[in-house]
Structure formats: C-alpha cells, structure tokens
Amino acid sequence: MFSGVIGRYKDFLPVSGSTPEVTLGEGGTPLVRSRSIGPMLGCEGLYFKLEGCNPTGSFKDRGMAMAIARALETGRERVICASTGNTSASAAAYGSRYGLETLVLVPAGEVALGKLAQAMAYGARILAVGGNFDDAFRTVMGLVDILDIELVNSLNPYRIQGQKTAAFEVVDDLGDAPDMLCVPVGNAGNITSYWLGFNEYAKAGLSRKLPRMMGFQASGSAPIALGRRVDNPETVATAIRIGNPANWESANRVRDESGGMIDMVADEEILSAYLRLAREEGVFCEPASAASVAGLMRLPDLGVEVKGKTAVCVLTGNGLKDPGTAESRALVEMEYVAPDLEAVASMLSVDAGGWR
Amino acid sequence: MFSGVIGRYKDFLPVSGSTPEVTLGEGGTPLVRSRSIGPMLGCEGLYFKLEGCNPTGSFKDRGMAMAIARALETGRERVICASTGNTSASAAAYGSRYGLETLVLVPAGEVALGKLAQAMAYGARILAVGGNFDDAFRTVMGLVDILDIELVNSLNPYRIQGQKTAAFEVVDDLGDAPDMLCVPVGNAGNITSYWLGFNEYAKAGLSRKLPRMMGFQASGSAPIALGRRVDNPETVATAIRIGNPANWESANRVRDESGGMIDMVADEEILSAYLRLAREEGVFCEPASAASVAGLMRLPDLGVEVKGKTAVCVLTGNGLKDPGTAESRALVEMEYVAPDLEAVASMLSVDAGGWR
Fold first, then answer.
1. Predicted confidence band at A24 (pLDDT cuts at 50, 70, 90)?
2. Which of B122, B125, B131 minimises the CB distance to A279?
3. B31-33 β-sheet, strand order
C-alpha cells in the first residue's frame, strides 16, 4: 500500500503505537537529473528534488503530517500558523482531512494567488494581517499563549522531524548523500531539517558522507546572510520573504557544522534561474525555489568548486502556486488565429515541412 | 535511483535498447484512502489516485514521457498537440527538457489560468484558436499532414502506452485491481489506457480480477453518454470540454468489455464533489477530476451497488491548475486585521481558550 512519510520512515520518527498514521500522500517526490545546468557547470551530477509534487504542492506537507499527527494524539481540535502561503495551504489541507479547525494568518497582499486559492478551497479561516510575515508570526505567537490551539509553524519540533524525511529520500535515491545540498532559506526550518536527516542516516550507517549545506536567501530579504534583522523584506520570491527567521540560530549552526554557507542571490538571478529551469530542464517551480539553483550557479564565482561534484537543489514548491509571475516573466505572446488550416499554415509560414 | 514510468515499467512498454529513458519524474503518484466519502457510501475501500502530483500537475505526463521518447527515437525535432490545457503543459515541459520545439493549439478563452502559465513558462509556441477543442484538434490533424512534426495527442499510441502505467500502480498499491475504477472522460484516452493496463497485469498474473470501468462526462459535454456529437460543449470542467472525442469507439469498447458504464454528471454535482474533496478529504483537484467522484456518488441511485466494494477514483489534475474556480466557488472571505494581538483576539471573540 502507498505510504506517506510516517508509514515509510517511522523507525526514524518520534511516533508510538498510539500516533495516528496521518497522510495525504506526502513524500516520495521525484529526484530528477539536470540535463542542462549541471553539465554546463561541470557537475558530476546535479539533481532537482521536486517538492512541488507533494499533495499541496510544497515540501511543507512532510512536516505537516507529523505536526497534525501530534495535534491529534494530544487531543487538539484547532491548529494555527503564520505563513507566506505554503504552510497555510498545507495546514488547511491536513486540518480539513482530519477534522481540525485551521486558522491561518497571512501577510495581506503578499501571498501568491494559488496559495490563497488552496487555503480557501480547503476551508481554512484566513486572517489577512496588515503587515509582513514577521508581523503575522508575532501575532500568532501571542495567540498561542492565550488559546488552546496547536502551533504548526516550524517552531513546532514535529514539523522539523517530518521534513527531515526528504534527506532520507535523497540518500535512498542516490545511494549516499550528495557533496552539497542547495536550499532556499526563509524561516530556515528546511535547512535545519535536511541536516538533521542527513546526520541521522549517516549515524545509522545508511550513508557514508555528509553534504555541505548551502542556503540561499533573496538579497532583499537576507537577514542571516547579512547578520541582521531586515525590517521590510522585499523580494519576488514571496515564499522566503521573511526578515526575522524563527530558526536563525539553528541555520547558523548547520552552516558551521557542515562547512557550508548561507548567502544571498538577487531577484534577477532568481528569475533567470526560474525561467531556465522551465525552458531547459522542463521543471516549473515557484520563484523562491529557484534561489537554490541561482545560488549554485554563483558558487564558482565565490571560489567554491562545483566541477566534479554531486549536488542536489531543493525545489521547494510548485510553479503553479504563483501563475502571475510566470505570466509576467515568461514573455510569451499567445497568437490568435481562426480554426482554419490555411490560416494557421499561413501564420506559421509553412514551407517544405517546417515553419519559421 | 528514482525512476519515471519508462524505467519502472519497461517490461510492459514498447521500448527497445535504443529508446531514450525520457523522464521528468512522472508516475509513482499517491493512492490516498478516503476518510469521508468512502465511509459514507459504505465502500469497503475508496481510494483517490492523485495524478495532480505528477511533475506538470496531471496524468498526461505518463504518456508524454513515452511519446517524447518515441519522437526522439525517430529523429523528430518538433511536436504538436491540441489541448484543453493539460496536454499542452505536459508537451511543453517534456519538449523543453529534450530540446524539441513545441507547438500547442488551445481553444481561445477556455483554458484554465495555471495551464496557460505553464505553457508560457516552458516556452511553447501557443496558438489560441477561435473555437473549441474540437476545432483546435481538427486543425492540428490537418497540420500533421503537411508538417514534419510528431503528434502527441492521445491518438498517438505511445501516449496510451505510457498512461496505462497508472493502472499498474493501482494494482501494485492495492495488491489487486479494485472492483471499479471511476474516471473523468474527455477525449477518452485515459479510460482506454487504464483498461489496457489492468488487462496486461491480469494476463501477467499480477492481478486476479478486472475492474468495472466507470467513465463520467460533464452533462453539457457528454457525447459518449448521449451517443451523439456535441457541437458546442459547455462545462465548468474545462479539461473535459470535448464534444467529439478522438477515442470514442475505444471508450465504448472498454465500457462493454468491462461491464461498466459511461454516464454524465451535472456541473453542480461536479462542483459539489470538488469542494467536498477539499473540505473533507484534504484533496484539491481540478474541477474535471471531481467528475469521477460525482459519478461514484450517483451510482447507488443508478442501481449500482457500491456498498462493500473497493473503488478507485482517478483525480486527473491538480487544483492549482484552475485557481479561479477555487476562488469563485469556495465562498471564503479573507478577514483583514491589524498585526496586533488585541485586535485579532477581539476579532476572534477569544474567550476561555477558544474563538467563536
């Protein structure tokens, strides 16, 4: 039978016989080999982890399965989170499936269209906060103190536990950990989770090496890279538009322990990687996801050798989450034509079996 | 290593040593057990096959991997299709990944937002035809006669071959075929493919029974159910808005051989099932996908026993493909509030640990 992350990796998760096996089919996402960017960089192998193939379209589902299992086990009836969109979609989906009332606080006007459509479809209660993610998050933390409600942001340790399963899958697919893992950094829960997963697998003898952890923020929203809180974060990569990450200290620890880095990439680099992924690799991710690839492409300039290395870039969310960015950046014009063979052939300048 | 459908099922596919193993991570999609609708109907087990978890968000990727492998093997440099959106997204993705120029003809004004965003992101050439799918399809068939180009609609037999792998996965997960399979019917390629897959697995001794094949069209676009071409098909389920299906005869054969049916469901039934899937099962699919569930829910009224049966509903595409329908139908209002604990607590009428 098809299993989610709890069923597949229960030996590595804090579950007991009484933990409900919550699943919506999360995990088991594709690891796809690069055909263009990897060869161009001279990588031994470059792979994309397509987390957008999770049931709500982002990596958040892995940790949400664990967090909801825990909420059910402890008898909670309500869950809450602040979100740039992906966490709220995931919380709303698992909440509706398991009969939990879901309250999400999102920054008004800063959440991509698809993510709002999801939270609405799943029937969450949505508060649009006049401020940014950090304001919404602070408000949520205040509410958690006065409500009988489960916090399902990545400060919830069960979220991190579920998310670490993505590292297990990378090792299961490659036969070992890669030389480096590149990941977008927003609230910094994901880089923390992957590092935990790689370490647990190595300790269990299931991998021989540990990767260098390479985290990338958007330059207009790069508190960890800059070493200071950003009060008004700005970036096209809305999923990582966070100025004061909850897992900041943990991200620094991961960077230091793994010999990695947390750096930043400009929006133009992100969008260039985003389009290149779609046009050359056939992978449509959300803009924030492409920060991992934009970061990888900067490494040679920063003096980090990628030639001959094995690298995995985590593509955290589905491009369909943010159709607006695709439409505005793709610069493709639809061509209108009558449903008539001659009209179409003429438009295509059909000549000797081809078109111009 | 992670494999796509060609790598996983090559023994059942028309591939040779010289066929390139084309993949974008398609297949291996979740089979998720119903928690609400199945128990309500008294099914022994009801499962949803989440084909929206494929890399471009629909089941089309399975067959496209095969069709593109074939196009490459025969030296084609260009591919073409008519599409209500999902086929064009898939063709554009695999086309870009494997360096094939992709030309898609879509009915102008009838394709869901996310699907157009995908084709644009992947860089396809998009002709918006002034007419419906059937007009676009007829034009494509004319072009195929005069251009050196590979047709990747489901008339391409390699598409059907790739798509049958979904039936293999259902049997692999359940240990046998279900008693019935419910599937939306548009161009009728998918019902044809599943039936082929179930038969091949049974012949190979990998399953003991064959399912009844239950296909459902939208009532405003139900040529097969009505037994006559529909000149102006109309339905909210844009993915199956097809009045003259290419695989019509094959669909009738599958119905008869399997002791199944091809029936129709009203748009209101489709939308009701669509919202119920999101609100009770945590599954957000596109409207056309929900026709399979709306159809299943009608069966008791049609005198078909579902109590005690095992059924699989194929949810063909991701809800993110069509965010507009979610927004307009979810009837959820976002509530705007300042990022202030007291303001939010007051809005929630926080009282004794809860809210109203």
1. very high
2. B122
3. B31-33, B45-50, B310-315, B180-184, B212-218, B261-265
Q: Considering the entire predicted model, what is its pTM?
A: 0.97
CA distance B44 to B179: 10
What angle, 0 to 180 degrees and rounded to 10, lies between the N-to-C axes of helices B323-330 and A113-122? 40
Which residue, B273, B263, B250, B269, is CA-closest to B319?
B273
Q: Nearest chain A Cα to B283, which residue?
A: A93
Q: Which residues contact B11 (CB under 8 A, 6 or more apart)?
A: none
Do B323 and A97 make contact, defined as CB atoms within 8 angstroms?
Answer: no
Residue from the list B114, B126, B282 with its beta carbon closest to the beta carbon of A334? B126
- A253: closest CA of chain B, how far (Å): 30
Instruction: For an interface test with B, give the residue of A147, A320, A325 to mutate (most B CBs within 10 A).
Output: A320
In single-letter form, the type of residue at position B353 comes to G
- The minimal CB distance from A94 to the residues B94, B282, B332 is found for B282
**Phi–psi pair at A217, nearest 5 degrees:** -105, 165
A97-131 per-position pLDDT tens digit: 999 999 999 999 889 999 999 999 999 999 999 99
Quote the CA–CA distance of B165 and B60 in Å, as a whole number.
11
pLDDT along chain B (356 residues), means of 10: 92 95 98 98 98 98 98 96 96 98 94 94 96 95 94 95 98 98 97 98 98 98 98 95 96 98 98 98 98 98 97 98 92 89 87 59
Mean per-residue pLDDT, A270-289: 98
Q: Two tokens at B131?
A: 């007419």
